[in-house]
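Pasting as-is:
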Amino acid sequence: MNILPIPRILIVALAALAVVIAAIIASPSEASHYGDKQFSVTGKTLAVEPVDVGKPGPSLGDMQIITEDVYRFGKRVGTSDIQCTVVRMDGPKFSVQCFNTTTLPGGQITAQGIVTSDQIEKIPFQQAVTGGTGAYKGVRGQLTVDEAGDKPAELTFELGR
């Protein structure tokens, strides 16, 4: 039985199509044009682990590690993993620097920023989108985290290239 070799151009075209399909699946927004995307996912916290360094109690360098599954329209579409480190103490108030990696079917999106004790679980706050992999390679933009009240965290990505 003779099997004909698949032409290289067909392999490249199929690979490109797979990347486009992955980007469409991973980015559930109806963006007006390629490169500009806004979409939201809802986080469900699986675990939170505090790390107390230095003197006991809240102090510089203390961390909190959070792992979440993220959902879109009730379907699990990925994960969000966050590490926040206390970088400023001002009496009972504090600021943390948080790093977030959200993994979706088409790749990963990274974000980071400062969050204050006045914002955490009270008002939406923004972080800078610092990059991504796969379908999100080269993205920039903003992540808005709304975890106010008793509802699950809502992560809204506004992405551009």
